[in-house]
Amino acid sequence: MMAELKKSFGLVDAFNIGIGAIIGAGIFVVTGIGASLAGPALLLSLLISAGIAAFTALSFAELSMRIPKEGGGYEFAHELISPFAGFITGWLWLVSNVVVGAVVSLGFAHYFALFFPIPVHVTATVACIIITSINYLGARDLEVVNNFLVVFKLFILACFVVFGIQSVQSGNITTTFFPHGSVGVLQGAAIMFFAFAGFARITVIGEEVKNPKKIIPRAIILALVVSTIVYVLVSYTAIGLVGYQGLANSGSPLADAARLEGGTMMLLIALGALAATFSVLLTTLLGTSRVSFAMARNNDLPRFFGSLHSRRNIPYISILIFGVIMTLFAAFTDLTSAVAISNFASLFYYAIANYAALKIKNPSYPRAVPVIGLFSCLLLLFFLTPTAWIIGCLILVIGIVYYFSMRKRRTTMVTQ
Questions:
Q1: How do residues 73-112 score in pLDDT, each as one tens digit?
Q2: Exposed site from 44, 243, 388, 411, fewest CB < 10 Å?
């Protein structure tokens, strides 16, 4: 029997994990990619993404009340649909979050380069090594660091909006609001879903939260509401300052927008971006280690992924393994492709989680909530790039082959 994890997170900690996972590379880095697709209509793309995320978030809130276990969407699908659906959900979660870690570390590196001209991939690699070390120290130390980073980045973004909104040029927003039509808006929404996907990170630590049936749903909804307000205000200010062309495909779009407000504001934004991306990195590795722990407990991954440190009471082998994988991926990936691949995996497993919510008897929310969540996730999938589909389907096939070969090996061992 595996040891149990210690309950150490309250409402503020759970909320900060959600904000720490949500507000990061999405607003500080991926905004540039979204602006290149949707133009000023990125504001609509954000609202569409937030709406889709809201229905899925309510499904996760419902599920977390019924199954407050470590592993989040993996456990939901495993218990309510089937072990196979659970495995695929967990598999996609792990892949998505490894890629997210690479994207966020690259975002960190782009802003770090504003201070020190070090090659981006070198900085990204070092950042992954550092967050692996912090996660290895245990939940209490991670909690303190993450709470500080969340407060700091929200303060910086508030400064950007308060001072930048006074210099907004309305023509940058209204002159050509739909440069790429409605398709561009939906493509922007598909990419910007990346900016909201972190809300589910709260559910993967279900067994480490005090009174999880109350705290987790509240933390999910609160984190999503706050992040949506922040995203819309910041994006409006950034586009209004430099126009969508000034943000498109920039590795540090908010810093580029802040240049108009002077060097001090640009440096503040860069510092906020470093804090934001670093906090997302912390919670990304936290999530992957906890999901792999849950999968190992159900024999869906080798048992050593579920080993807990005798003193720190953390799945330390999972932390080290996924820390190494994330570090290697950060050293070789590129930003745009990584975001698309991560979105394919996250939209797919969120669709499965919404389907799992449909299996709940006597739900707290109307059945329409998971239905809309399910179909909206599937809809956004079709606005991702062909490359994302090819690589995403390949990852699915690899996971399916692994699952059935593992099951066959298990059956052979039992019959011998």
A1: 888 899 999 999 999 999 998 888 888 788 788 888 888 8
A2: 411
